[in-house]
Amino acid sequence: MTVTELVSYEDALATYDPVMGLEVHVELGTKTKMFCGCSTALGAEPNSQTCPTCLGLPGALPVMNAIGVESAIKIGLALHCEIAEWCRFARKNYFYPDMPKNFQTSQYDEPIAFNGYLDVQLEDGEIFRVDIERAHMEEDTGKSTHVGGATGRIHGASHSLLDYNRAGIPLIEIVTKPIVGAGERAPEVAKAYVAELRELIKALGVSEARMEMGQMRCDVNLSLRLNGVEKFGTRSETKNVNSLRSVERAARYEIQRHAAVLGSGGTIIQETRHFHEEDGSTTAGRIKEEAEDYRYFPEPDLVPVAPARDWVEELRAGLPELPRLRRKRLREEWGISEHEMQSVLNAGVIDLITATIEAGADAASARKWWMGELARRANEESIDPTALPITPTQVARVAELVADGGLNDKLARQVIEGVLAGEGDPDTVVDKRGLKIVSDEGALGTAVDEAIAANAAIADKIRGGKVAAAGALVGAVMKATRGQADAARVRELILERLGAAE
Ligand code: ADP
Ligand code: MG
Ligand code: ZN
């Protein structure tokens, strides 16, 4: 690998203006593949989910997946696109071992959706509009595994294995128009766009859009032009970037690399590049094909797609609230700041908090438990908070017990711990572990009397008017009751007994 000299980010931006283009592939969550009835379930034995159609055997004919088309239209509508009245699939011809038909069934000049936009929110709250060129339907390829080499790449491998289970899984490719005007914030815009798009796809219910599982991947096109120049420079295309952080880093790295090449009198060649997670760098891939190289032509084995207008309108009417607007509404309902909402998002608990509030908790305690105790636990175990063995209903019950005075925070944490440990519902854990606030006045009174008797000197100070000393006695009572007393009531009782007032 050749070490590339980079220009500092600040210096690059002082001379050049970045132009970006983002291509995002989303694997749809349909039960079956795009053109055959094979299952799309993950984790099956290699090549167990294939048939003559997705293996490209001669004579096999494709049949379109209606849910795939419906999902594409939903995505197009949510991105404010126009939906084609009539469009076709096209064959994109090239040979690659993981593509058994020797062409990919895709869409070329007749995409199902085009001319839209997505508003994304940057960290300081500013809204940046990203224009969408098109969203089109296509199919995924199979998966190659290169065996015998040190790196898992094809170089140095002794042989390669092919799994066609993924071949033919529906993909939607969403392509932006060139993104201009972002300046030094281009990498941030790229990350915010992919984040917003992911939220949108999830809200539509068409895919889980989990980047770490390859269900959503992004190609980052980037070029630089001298400040003040209208014409775009030559772009590089960093392929298959698969996390939000990597999208930002890849854009940043390419800005610095292009600036170095251009600044030293070199030229950027239009090529694909690989992104390296370890150090955030990119290295050259293949020289970019021209569209002509693919010999696109309309797919003769599939009927054209002509979605009826009333169906499109029905889908439009059924669209969920856009994530950005939902976040704004929830932020207002919960009474939290932009920054606090960002933390909620980062913790991945927005839906869990919403469900906990729906189950009866107030917003503040729902947020407190999910952002505190539970987010911490999920983080410690490196799992998604949704995978924790506790439900929003159970969290709401804990919040209710606290609100009713049956538990204090310390006891509530123990209840949550019990639920997570599989000891049952909150009420069961409270019973089994004996975790109730001692609010029985008789028992509290006895504990208070004992504490006064055992700390005579302190009691005298309080009698003499030094109310601040009561804390020590409250502490003694809490200790004696193993934290299960209501501290405020204990304090009242102590002051009452000693004839002192606040
Ligand atoms: P290809 O299939 O060759 O990658 P696409 O049109 O699918 O071409 O995608 C190219 C992406 O790059 C689009 O998002 C487009 O807006 C963007 N783009 C085009 N020209 C430039 C450029 N000079 N600099 C940066 N981005 C560009
Ligand atoms: Mg591309
Ligand atoms: Zn099949």
Automatic annotation (TrEMBL):
GO MF term set: ATP binding; glutaminyl-tRNA synthase (glutamine-hydrolyzing) activity; transferase activity
Enzyme Commission code: 6.3.5.-
SUPFAM superfamilies reported for this sequence: GatB/YqeY motif, Glutamine synthetase/guanido kinase
Record bears the keyword Ribosomal protein: no
Keyword Electron transport annotated: no
One Pfam assignment: GatB_Yqey
Residue span(s) of domain Asn/Gln amidotransferase: 351-498
Catalytic activity: L-glutamyl-tRNA(Gln) + L-glutamine + ATP + H2O = L-glutaminyl-tRNA(Gln) + L-glutamate + ADP + phosphate + H(+); L-aspartyl-tRNA(Asn) + L-glutamine + ATP + H2O = L-asparaginyl-tRNA(Asn) + L-glutamate + ADP + phosphate + 2 H(+)
Record note on quaternary structure: Heterotrimer of A, B and C subunits.
Function text: Allows the formation of correctly charged Asn-tRNA(Asn) or Gln-tRNA(Gln) through the transamidation of misacylated Asp-tRNA(Asn) or Glu-tRNA(Gln) in organisms which lack either or both of asparaginyl-tRNA or glutaminyl-tRNA synthetases. The reaction takes place in the presence of glutamine and ATP through an activated phospho-Asp-tRNA(Asn) or phospho-Glu-tRNA(Gln).
Name the record gives this protein: Aspartyl/glutamyl-tRNA(Asn/Gln) amidotransferase subunit B
Protein's organism: Streptomyces zagrosensis
